[in-house]
Specification:
Elements: H1 2-34, H2 39-59, H3 63-84, E1 86-98, E2 102-113, E3 116-129, E4 132-144, H4 150-162, H5 165-189
Antiparallel strand pairs: 1-2, 2-3, 3-4
């Protein structure tokens, strides 16, 4: 038993000696790097860093101002959701390709418009030319619960072909609003 304990201690001592050796090497490397800079340069860097951090704290608003701004944004979002009927439940964005003047992102979006759930997947190609940005939607895929209305599936197919998100959201908003009215009317007669 004493041999096991002494072996454990020896292993621990060896591990600590190795760690001390690594830390000594790092210290020497850092000391050599610091000799490349003069004392004046080091003081100048410290002062500029202190100035930056003081400038950052001066530029931030107080927590109460940020809280008020957050509440205002939440109120605006709530109003827009109530006004349009759109309630987005999730959104994910993944950058597929990025160059100096071209970015391709894949978006997934899900939510409800009034009581109709929907999911969208599409790629957004953004190109920048001479301070002008243009965006093109491609590979649009719309998933909605199947309804009895064949016109909805035709509309979804046509929208996917053309990649017209604005038309989709406008039409879905109107259709979902009237769908709710019809549903309430039929419930009234049941």
């Amino acid at each position: 038993m004493d041999e096991d304990v002494s072996q454990d201690y020896e292993n621990e001592i060896q591990a600590l000696e190795e760690e001390i050796g690594l830390l000594t090497e790092k210290y020497e490397d850092m000391r050599q790097e610091s000799t490349f800079f003069s004392d004046e340069e080091i003081l100048k860097a410290i002062k500029s860093l202190q100035g930056e951090t003081q400038g950052e704290t001066k530029g931030h608003e107080s927590p109460s101002d940020l809280q008020a701004q957050l509440e205002s944004l939440e109120t605006d979002l709530s109003f827009l959701m109530e006004f349009t009927g759109f309630h987005f439940t999730s959104h994910s964005k993944k950058t597929v390709e990025k160059t100096q003047n071209r970015t391709v992102q894949k978006h997934r979006l899900s939510g409800k418009c009034h009581s109709l759930p929907f999911q969208l997947e599409f790629q957004l190609l953004e190109m920048q030319n001479d301070e002008k940005v243009s965006a093109v939607v491609s590979d649009l895929s719309i998933i909605m619960e199947s309804r009895e209305d064949s016109n909805v599936s035709k509309f979804v197919s046509r929208t996917e072909e053309h990649g017209d998100l604005l038309t989709f959201f406008r039409s879905l908003s109107t259709y979902a609003e009237w769908y709710e009215h019809r549903r309430h009317t039929f419930l009234h007669f049941k």
